[in-house]
Specification:
elongated, binds adenosine-5'-[phenylalaninyl-phosphate], 3-stranded antiparallel β-sheet, 11 helices, alpha+beta, about 350 residues, 2 domains
């Protein structure tokens, strides 16, 4: 009994002293291995009388279990320590500038986001932001889409479980709730903002992704009219597609938060397979929706709709990137395929500017 107790404390001390996995494995082999000290003790059981076995059996097995458990615990400790040491030695300073020789590229969506921000900054627009998990109230109700209104079915929504305080949230289905946020934050006109960002809908095929990007524009002031909307969309498209001549077509549409509502198409030529040319041809490319901000939306945000008017539009950013850079399938944006990123990505240090060139 004393022998077993002293053997156990010796083995446990050896286990605790093992400084790495190799040393620990040596202790394991020397104790629990085929010729190990604990295995040798267990092997003597066969030679014991049944009475002796009754007494010694539990002691031998207790020793074996204690050693096995101590080895497992020490192994986990050593693994944790090894991971900590590796994490400490492999830290990456994310504030360092990128190393182009490593082949990292800017994702086309980030590039397009920068391009659009540069274009609108030049037109005097600020950038407004909103969260991806949005109040149902901002995503729908304040935008003149009350609960149970059939217009909610226009966008297949990802709903989030109701919160403890009773508020309900959704993954925002469009960037239009940022209109609400911008108006509530400003309190009064003038407002001139864009809001690019992620949006979510239950949707997936070559031109629809469950997570995609939109860019919203909102202008509210005295005397804003459809002419301002048309001019802004035109200037934006010319700058974005980097061509002087474009032809836009407005189609009547419906959005509960704009009145009147228009959708914009751009003339293009797709007669040569695999190519698209803008400003010429007999085809039309859909850009997105727009309209004059509905008076109820202005009033919901505390604005005097007798005095102020506004326009807004929301275009699909991924679709615009696909058109500009000839990317055929929207899903490839989000597959993290390095070969794809090297092909379609942009040099990390080429910041888009209007005078330096947007996509050069
Ligand atoms: C809207 O989302 C409106 N909020 C736009 C708007 C803003 C109208 C301001 C008036 C005033 P719509 O559901 O049509 O509208 O989406 C706008 C654009 O988002 C579409 O033209 C399309 O380019 C893009 N889009 C919509 N769903 C997806 C999707 N699942 N994947 C990729 N792009 C999408």
């Amino acid at each position: 009994m004393t022998d077993i107790a002293s053997l156990q404390s010796q083995i446990l001390a050896d286990i605790a002293a093992a400084g790495d996995e190799t040393a620990l494995d040596a202790v394991r082999v020397a104790t629990l291995g085929k010729k190990g000290s604990v295995s040798a003790l267990l092997a003597t059981m066969g030679k014991l009388s049944p009475e002796e076995r009754k007494v010694q059996g539990p002691l031998f097995n207790g020793l074996k279990d204690a050693v096995a458990e101590a080895i497992a615990v020490r192994k986990a400790e050593l693994a944790d320590a090894a991971l900590d040491a590796r994490l400490a030695s492999e830290t990456v300073d994310v504030t360092l500038p990128p190393a182009p020789e490593n082949g990292g590229t800017v994702h086309p969506i980030s590039q397009v986001l920068e391009e659009i921000t540069a274009i609108f900054a030049d037109l005097g627009f600020a950038v407004a932001e909103g969260p991806d998990v949005e109040f149902d109230d901002y995503n729908f109700t304040k935008l003149n889409i009350p609960p149970d209104h059939p217009a909610r079915q226009m966008q297949d929504t990802f709903y989030v479980s109701p919160q403890a305080d009773g508020s309900s949230h959704v993954l925002r289905t469009h960037t239009s709730p940022v209109q609400v946020r911008a108006m509530l934050a400003a309190g009064k006109p003038p407002i001139r903002v864009i809001s690019p960002g992620r949006t979510y809908r239950v949707d997936s095929d070559a031109t629809h992704s469950p997570m995609f990007h939109q860019v919203e524009a909102l202008v509210v002031d005295e005397g804003i009219h459809l002419g301002h909307l048309k001019w802004t969309v035109e200037e934006f498209c010319k700058a974005f597609f980097e061509i002087d001549q474009i032809e836009l077509r407005a189609r009547p549409s419906f959005f509960p938060f704009t009145e009147p509502s228009l959708e914009w198409d751009m003339r293009c030529d797709r007669s040569v397979p695999g190519q698209i040319r803008f400003g010429t041809g007999n085809d039309w490319l859909e850009l997105g929706g727009s309209g004059m901000v509905h008076r109820k939306v202005l009033e919901n945000c505390g604005f005097d709709a007798q005095k102020y008017t506004g326009f807004a539009f929301g275009f699909g950013l991924d679709r615009m990137a696909m058109l500009k850079y000839g990317i055929p399938d929207i899903r490839s944006f989000f597959e993290s395929d390095l070969r794809w990123l090297r092909h379609y990505g942009f040099a990390a240090l080429d910041i888009p500017t209007l005078d330096g060139g947007l996509s050069k």
